[in-house]
Amino acid sequence: MLIVMHHNATIDQIQAVEQAISALGLLAQPIPGGQRTAIGVLGNRGYVDDATIRDLPGVLEIIHVSKPYKMVSRDFHPASTVVKVGSVVVGDGCPPVVMAGPCSIESEIQMLESARLVKSAGAHILRGGAFKPRTGPHSFQGLGAEGLKYLQTAGREVDLPVVTEVMRIEQLDLACRYADLLQIGARNMQNFDLLKEVGQLRCPVLLKRGMSATIEEFLAAAEYIVAEGNDQVILCERGIRTFETATRNTLDLSVVPLVKSLSHLPIIVDPSHATGRRTLVPVMSRAALVAGAHGLMIEVHPSPDQALCDGAQSLTGQGFALLMKDLAYLQDCLAKLHGPVAGEPA
Amino acid sequence: MLIVMHHNATIDQIQAVEQAISALGLLAQPIPGGQRTAIGVLGNRGYVDDATIRDLPGVLEIIHVSKPYKMVSRDFHPASTVVKVGSVVVGDGCPPVVMAGPCSIESEIQMLESARLVKSAGAHILRGGAFKPRTGPHSFQGLGAEGLKYLQTAGREVDLPVVTEVMRIEQLDLACRYADLLQIGARNMQNFDLLKEVGQLRCPVLLKRGMSATIEEFLAAAEYIVAEGNDQVILCERGIRTFETATRNTLDLSVVPLVKSLSHLPIIVDPSHATGRRTLVPVMSRAALVAGAHGLMIEVHPSPDQALCDGAQSLTGQGFALLMKDLAYLQDCLAKLHGPVAGEPA
Amino acid sequence: MLIVMHHNATIDQIQAVEQAISALGLLAQPIPGGQRTAIGVLGNRGYVDDATIRDLPGVLEIIHVSKPYKMVSRDFHPASTVVKVGSVVVGDGCPPVVMAGPCSIESEIQMLESARLVKSAGAHILRGGAFKPRTGPHSFQGLGAEGLKYLQTAGREVDLPVVTEVMRIEQLDLACRYADLLQIGARNMQNFDLLKEVGQLRCPVLLKRGMSATIEEFLAAAEYIVAEGNDQVILCERGIRTFETATRNTLDLSVVPLVKSLSHLPIIVDPSHATGRRTLVPVMSRAALVAGAHGLMIEVHPSPDQALCDGAQSLTGQGFALLMKDLAYLQDCLAKLHGPVAGEPA
Amino acid sequence: MLIVMHHNATIDQIQAVEQAISALGLLAQPIPGGQRTAIGVLGNRGYVDDATIRDLPGVLEIIHVSKPYKMVSRDFHPASTVVKVGSVVVGDGCPPVVMAGPCSIESEIQMLESARLVKSAGAHILRGGAFKPRTGPHSFQGLGAEGLKYLQTAGREVDLPVVTEVMRIEQLDLACRYADLLQIGARNMQNFDLLKEVGQLRCPVLLKRGMSATIEEFLAAAEYIVAEGNDQVILCERGIRTFETATRNTLDLSVVPLVKSLSHLPIIVDPSHATGRRTLVPVMSRAALVAGAHGLMIEVHPSPDQALCDGAQSLTGQGFALLMKDLAYLQDCLAKLHGPVAGEPA
Predict the structure, then answer these.
(1) Complex ipTM value
(2) What number of C-beta contacts closer than 8 Å exist between B and C?
């Protein structure tokens, strides 16, 4: 931590800050500059709460050097984490993993059809939502427990592990029984109680980035889960909210190499929610793969035009099959690149 | 709903859209223009899901005219709602309500001191957090149930109703027992299960705007609560996330008159979280009052320098007392204005 | 400047950074911490370009303590600047100044009518645009030089100084001849050549904040003008671009007290462009005044329904007259407040 | 254009709106709905200014269907535009074009070295900045006319066309003499006078997206140039400003396929400015290529550690050579994809 003093801070003010630092059991090291004094703080073993210092007279600004996360950082834990979802592995050194299926579970037959579609195209994990977060209360809210059974049945039928979103702690027992991977959605990225609770499970977790979460907050949210003992966390970029309204969200692909350099956790990309437009999904899926994503989450529906949710961003079975061919081909191509991968000096 | 067709959409494509509209039980009315055709949709009684239409060939864009909320809109419910919190009333025609107290409940003595401070300065509701949402897992997380008791005790001691934040459904029983007003924080504005659950209580609810929530989403979140039967909802603007980092968030005061024109629910402002800086709180409190806020939520701490949470944005007792005097004075002044209040044509 | 090293940076890497700092003629002071080393940079007399250091091996992050502006900062120049526009003064200690008139100059008669309207209501400066920046090339672009003459004539007729926007260097001679205050619009806030050029004039300048400019960039833009010798600069907050689309921009009123604490230059507010809605202009004007603005810029049109530009956000003469009464009354009220004004400790 | 009336708008109010539409020479077509009436506007040949309607009593909202651009839209001009820069072609059907070189022209020798580096690696166009827009006035501002000569000399030496940024109209003559492609930077995207002026030249133009410009505004800015007669415009995505500060800007790659579907103009990507970090440039360059970019603009410096500007985001010659190999290889791979390219239905 660095405390920057005002240009004209008095010696008394500087000493008061030094005392406040000492009171926290830390060391203060003044750095007199040409124009002002800064005070370095030494001896802390992590993020320091600056509440008792921030507002002392003469303090201009406080700069935090330590991050609000540590266990998920590559700085402290260099080896890459590989997450296991059933028999599928996700992370550095593993082939990219594709999670596919409909936004909402609508019926047993729809899930079965979807499962066969995505399996035959080569997907690795089946997705389907039983509990749906919707902006307004008058939209379709999901089939709930019934839906989870359909999802599990469909997954077993085609021999794919399944992923589904949980929105509240009470759903965890049920979801753990039926699903192989639990998704925490963007709206719940800072639902800290939910994070702590899944941190105590043995089930792997897919954590989506919040709509307006910085990378630092994203990793701090993952830290909540890992700090409780569960290091089986896959991160997922799904677009952030910006001023641009031509796409549903703004897909922030740079976050993929950046997170790979900052953290040892795997990161995948959801181009369906990020763009909100079916025609953009294949091209952005390919771009995400090339940006270094460990996998993709893609909405596929047997009849997108009749989907109860997000049909406009769902691929048809045929579109998805073509995309899978291209992803496999591109993956081969990537193995032959000469340049540095993300995060290494060029 | 209006469907805008491509410049060169064919007659067949236009007819296919008309059929899809009919299939939803609605009427299609083509509007041929100089450059392209648009198709109006009639007969809907609310927001229409466009999934089956959005992606038909020739469709350029779909424009929704209906909003994802209805019960909270002034359009359908012109009379202003007044919310009762204990003996305090909040809304149009009521004097502005000030909710004040520390960010976190830290001890019985700290809550008592805070309660006496804010009561003697003239506050109407006592605030204090027992469950704290913190970005990283290594920060102080609140006293929990023990804290709620301190809050209630302090409130009774000074005869003020109390407000506290709830973060999960399991906390509701406890919180209802000890608090007079339940706060849903910004991070939980789209925790829809929590919203539905408080919608079934008889307890009034303070709903904070999400960090990146549009006004439309904010009102749709309130609709979740009201749709379940609880219309005792107070909205709270607490700053939104933008590119600007000089303040903790960007206080969006225009939302106050705008929400007052769009909805019948009362709206208050939290300048402490919005600005994150103690020195900006008094001036922005006064500005919020003049912008038409039905009340304010302000952090006050007997010793901000030693606060466990958000000390930098907390007023001292003395600072708060001065502010309360100014607010009372300003409120008198506002009664003598000539011009139109918010939402009326100038 | 502070250079934060990686957790596992080697001694050689740390020494290489120290050498690079020396090569810039500056002093390096290592600050060994519990988890990593940081290196303070001493001896600089302003902002240091970090290009030669940023990318050295082992460097995690570089934190700048110095700001990209100095002459406009209150830290280095505590006395408030008062700007003179004709016989009108703007700044600390002066009554708030209202600049009013139509968005576009449309005709001689329209300018005269506008001038009489705003003068009789009590405005202090007459505004009118001769050169109009419009998003698309097919919209009305302004009357140019002819318009400037109408503006000057109207201003003289009612004895008010006039302000108008300049968009290119070639317009400066003309604009200086006809106007008393030159406006640099939001789109040109970082048109650095234009800034330097007006910095060499003796004419006062109204500098609007860019749509996505941070406060730091806003003040650095003002520094361009002041650094050339012209300290007669008035800043103007006019709303920033955020994800919210319900208002044209998001009015960032906190910037008013914040800029007043960071800079000695006066700052006014333009609620017309910020909100884009006539009904919000009076209420946000009053809030801006209470937030400490040194003045307001308000669009007024004799017949807003027939305006060639931004009619929807223009007040009628009657609406403006009511607002002026309220502003005068509120200004009296503000003189009697007890609490601290912006920027002082509470 | 569609005018949405209030739920309880009166018949008189609806008729007044119809009359205002007629007064514009357009046709009004009321669309009575279950809850409110909307009024379609027919007969317009482009964007309609809504100033005379927007604020009539009973009007809730106005929705524009026409866009503020037309000549650059693919809807009205389906054939793709190919831009010629010297002997290099940019656009659909052409191999991707790489523009590379230093941010700033620093000396004759530095430009020559840079030119040889990028030529030998296979770049197609040489870049170099003679006029530099810098946030603060105390940073290096460029060599000006002298720099342009160095740039031209270096380009001729290695037989590459050259591109450079222009910031003001007075620089155009000079820049046209020395450069083959004129760049309009992000800060000047809405410097409309400059746009009009380059629209009257025969020289091709590289138009960078403004920091907070929507796609619609970006295309409307291009329309300014094309409307003056110059259709040789290359668009360039260079990152937008969001709340995320971990990268310099947020690279919005979805804009590439989206712009390709909306416009016939070519679009390239600048990953150097978008990310601001050297280590991210190669990976994001590859991703941009796969997203469909018609080319890339990349900062390369013989000694990035000693660059006067943006060294932290510049590749070394060696890093750039590796990247060029990978881009060429990837380009071959892309030719063998099965799936639809951007903008086509999946």
Answers:
(1) 0.88
(2) 180
